[in-house]
Amino acid sequence: MLLDGWGWVAWGVYFFAMPAGALAVRRATLRSWPALSRPVTYRTLGRAVLAAVVAAALVLALFAVLSLAGWIEVEGHSVSLRVLLMGVLGPQLLVASWEELAFRGALQPIAIHRLSQKAGLTVASALFGLFHLPNILYHEVPAALVPQTVAALILMGAVFGLAALRNGGYLAVPIALHFGWNSACFGLEEAFSYQFVGPQWLIGTPAWFPESGLLGAAILAGLAGVAWWLTKPHMQPVQAEVHTA
Fold first, then answer.
1. 47-61, pLDDT tens digit by residue?
2. pLDDT tens digit string along 71-128?
3. Of 88, 134, 155, 176, which has fewest CB within 10 angstroms of its CB?
4. Is 2 part of a structural domain of the chain?
5. How many domains does the chain have?
6. What's the pTM?
7. What is the spatial distance between Cα 218 and Cα 201, in angstroms, rounded to a whole number?
8. Which residue segment(s) compose the domain that 151 sits in?
9. Does residue 18 lie within any of the structural domains?
10. Which residues are CB-contacts of 75 (< 8 A; sequence separation ≥ 6)?
């Protein structure tokens, strides 16, 4: 999507090469696969649904507050259930699954295995933020907002990484948090035509809302509390995943 006429190549790399490559590197390094094979229980499903709902609610609440404050002017709206399902929810479920599989399912445990728990979480989160930099530039986020947008995405990576770490590497909650957040962001973009009239450094830009504003980073910090509450510490270290079978 970054090169005209080569979008199919970009999507092929994104949806196939990236997760497949990450899994191959994990398998070669840790001799194990991500923790995806646990049976789905009502408790697991309930936590995942709650994670997605709360993440989406935080984004929508921020948008509503900024609208009431007069910092967002909604110029029109057009909500189509078909568009929301096919153009937002479906694609964002794939995006959340693939990115969590690559970053929290592979890169983070590899980094923790090679370094330490804190250093591995930091490295994986930083790579997650930097991974989005080309897309941030492609969407023409104002140069002054690029550093704080990347920083917010690094924080987002840390939130999702913490959720995976505290849940023994199981990716249900990180995927749900990621899916809920992205679905709300892209759902607003599809449903409304709006412009920002408030302080840009605080509320960000429509090109990358809400991570491009400091208030977006603030609600990500709130999302960290949700992730902490929804997960529990795993008693065994990540290195215990390594086996020779």
1. 999 999 999 999 999
2. 999 887 777 777 777 778 888 999 999 999 999 999 999 999 999 999 999 999 999 9
3. 134
4. no
5. 1
6. 0.88
7. 13
8. 7-241
9. yes
10. 192, 193, 194, 195
